[in-house]
Design brief:
With 567 residues, the chain is an alpha/beta fold. The protein folds into two domains: 43-135 and 210-476, Glycosidases (TIM Barrel); 142-194, Oligo-1,6-glucosidase, Domain 2 (Oligo-1,6-glucosidase, domain 2, Alpha-Beta Complex), CATH 3.90.400.10. Helix content is 26%, strand content 17%. The chain has 16 helices and 21 strands. The chain has helices spanning 3-15, 22-26, 63-68, 70-76, 111-123, 142-149, 209-223, 273-286, 300-307, 330-341, 359-363, 369-380, 411-416, 458-462, 468-481, 483-487, and strands at 44-47, 80-83, 127-133, 161-162, 183-186, 191-194, 229-233, 249-254, 260-262, 290-293, 316-317, 348-350, 386-390, 489-493, 500-507, 510-517, 523-526, 536-542, 547-549, 552-555, 560-566. An eight-stranded parallel β-sheet has the order 11-10-7-3-2-1-13-12, covered by helices on one side. Strands 14-15-16-21-18 form a five-stranded antiparallel β-sheet, with helices on both faces. A three-stranded antiparallel β-sheet has the order 4-6-5, with no helix packed on it. Helix 7 packs parallel to helix 8 and helix 12 runs parallel beside helix 15. The protein starts with a helix and ends with a strand. The protein binds 1-deoxynojirimycin.
Length: 567
């Protein structure tokens, strides 16, 4: 933060000291109305292309399907779509095993379809973000096919090849996060190659400058085709210790795949990652593009490293610690929000994605799930930061895991069954209407459509003013038009409250209060308006009967109140 911004923050902080806590008082963030880059105030939306909309009715979603839903997305309030990998791929990891970075998988369409999507999105001012799988390729990528062909092939050193420790023994103890040794023996050349994920996903050797050049060129190629940025997959794992030291065992026992619990000391988060991120950022900056990171950080100090010193790495490293607050706890959310609010870059909030159980289930109590889905929407869409939505969240889609091993599509589910059921549950087809297959396809959907499509779908919820979808639209509309929600500082209030999470967003003379009842009983919140220099609180968006009268905000169970404070 620069000095001018800091000096702007001070009067705002002093202004409402009676509400503020130590964490908020030490926050140095202030509003930044002018000149912030396009991505800062944008709402992002992740699309898992297999599951979004199927235009040719083969049971798998595609790019033309996405194009056909752009009006829906615009109307919802989405400014940028992140499309999970749609490049040619054997689909072992459903696209996260790329065999050609500069094309579209025929199952999703072709480059002409992509260009059409890009131009239709542009007409609606929606940016396109692609998913760049940087750590590994498919074992069917031409680079790897050449690499494994002989020890002297041109691409041999593009991947990590090593001799075993002895006959039948891999080079070290590293285990794949998807189960088993992270090394696979290749009989053609008598060496092992390294794969942090599936054996079909060999890790690239980022120490080789040719790899770096080729991968950087991939980003240029897509920028020149109109892409506005990338979500960088698995950046934590780009580099490995060249000496291949064994990882320490974190604790005794075995994981769902029967492997030891290792501390990934020598194969994740090596400092060299940051050189690459700085380089990718330089290229991105030449194209006014954004880099979002799949960054599994242990704390905010680690998150700060991904922003880079001087904010020269990722603009939007995702804060997964936020998703790890796994219960509706004002205390825990307050703590996590304060921490990320104090990070050295602009926060990025996510509550669901294609790898984690949907928020609808993580927070739902089985009785008030729709109400809780609205509460969560009100939370991450009103915080100071960029939200990344996940398709279906806006209609209250639930996680629907397979019930039998034979039904499982995600290989980790087949391997780890029943302890690990895989990620099919959070990747089921988008629920567009109540017709067969939820309007996703007239073919056989690649994953079964959950029975909830009858009650939770776009068509029906659009007609119901109390639906989760309509609530999302209201909050998103407010967010796009309210300067305090876009650019305002964040200050926690009433910090001892264990039922209601409440905070202010302050921009110049504009103050918005957000009150979220995280309990199943009605709650009241005293705004103490006079003492804090205000005369009234006016409802902007609220659920049901939640309302403000005088100093008091009344919240129904799991209720939301977002209001404007007037002086
Ligand atoms: C993270 C992706 O989100 C996940 O779906 C994938 O399996 C791994 N990276 C490997 O690419």
């Amino acid at each position: 933060m620069n000095r001018t911004a800091l000096s702007m923050a001070i009067p705002l902080i002093l202004f409402c000291t009676s509400w503020l806590t130590a964490s908020a008082q030490t926050s140095t963030h202030a509003a930044d109305a002018e000149g912030h880059p396009w991505w800062q105030n944008a709402v992002f939306y992740e699309i898992y292309p297999r599951s979004f909309a199927d235009s040719n009715n083969d049971g798998v979603g595609d790019l033309n399907g996405i194009t056909s839903k752009l009006d829906y997305l615009k109307d919802l309030g989405v400014d940028a779509i992140w499309i999970s990998p749609c490049f040619p791929s054997p689909q072992v990891d459903f696209g996260y095993d790329v065999s050609d970075y500069e094309n579209i998988d025929p199952m999703y369409g072709n480059l002409a379809d992509f260009d059409n999507l890009a131009s239709e999105a542009k007409k609606r001012n929606i940016h396109i973000i692609l998913d760049f799988v940087v750590n590994h390729t498919s074992d069917q990528h031409k680079w790897f096919l050449d690499s494994k062909s002989s020890r002297t092939s041109a691409h041999r050193d593009w991947y990590i090849w090593r001799d075993g420790k002895g006959p039948g023994q891999p080079p070290n103890n590293w285990v794949s996060t998807f189960g088993g040794s992270a090394w696979k023996f290749d009989p053609t050349t008598g060496q092992y190659y390294y794969h942090y994920f599936y054996p079909e996903q060999p890790d690239l050797n980022w120490r080789n400058p040719a790899v770096k050049d080729a991968m950087f060129d991939v980003t240029r190629w897509w920028y020149n085709r109109g892409v506005a940025g990338f979500r960088l997959d698995a950046v934590d794992t780009l580099f490995e210790d060249p000496n291949l030291q064994d990882n320490p065992i974190a604790h005794p026992g075995k994981n769902a795949f029967g492997d030891p619990f290792e501390q990934n000391k020598y194969n994740t988060k090596l400092p060299e990652v940051h050189d690459i991120l700085r380089g990718l950022r330089q290229v991105a900056d030449e194209h006014d593009a954004v880099l979002i990171g799949e960054t599994w950080t242990a704390d905010v100090a680690e998150l700060n490293q991904y922003y880079g010193k001087g904010n020269n790495e990722l603009q939007l490293p995702m804060d997964f610690l936020f998703t790890m607050v796994n219960k509706l706890s004002p205390v825990e959310f307050r703590k996590q929000i304060a921490e990320v609010n104090g990070a050295s870059g602009w926060p990025t909030f996510v509550i669901s994605n294609h790898d984690i159980v949907r928020s609808y289930d993580r927070y739902g109590d089985g009785k008030h799930n729709d109400q809780i889905a609205k509460l969560m929407a009100a939370l991450y869409l009103t915080l100071r930061g960029t939200p990344i939505m996940y398709y279906g969240e806006e209609i209250g889609m639930k996680t629907t895991p397979p019930t039998r091993r034979e039904e499982v599509q995600d290989p980790i589910g087949r391997k780890g069954w029943p302890k690990e059921k895989g990620r099919d549950g959070e990747r089921t087809p988008m629920q567009w209407n109540s017709s067969e297959n939820a309007g996703f396809t007239t073919g056989k959907p690649w994953l079964p459509v959950p029975p909830t499509y009858k009650t939770h779908n776009v068509a029906d919820e659009s007609k119901d003013p109390d639906s989760v979808l309509e609530f999302y639209k209201q909050v998103l509309k407010l967010r796009h038009t309210n300067q305090a929600l876009l650019d305002g500082s964040y200050s926690a209030i009433n910090e001892n409250d264990t039922n209601v999470l409440s905070y202010l967003r302050i921009y110049k003379d504009q103050t918005v209060v957000v009150a979220l009842n995280m309990s199943g009983s009605p709650q009241k919140l005293n705004l103490d308006l006079k003492r804090n220099g205000f005369s009234s609180a006016t409802r902007l968006v609220a659920t049901g009967k939640s309302t403000a009268k005088g100093d008091e905000v009344s919240l129904e169970p799991f209720g939301v109140f977002i209001g404007q404070l007037a002086k």
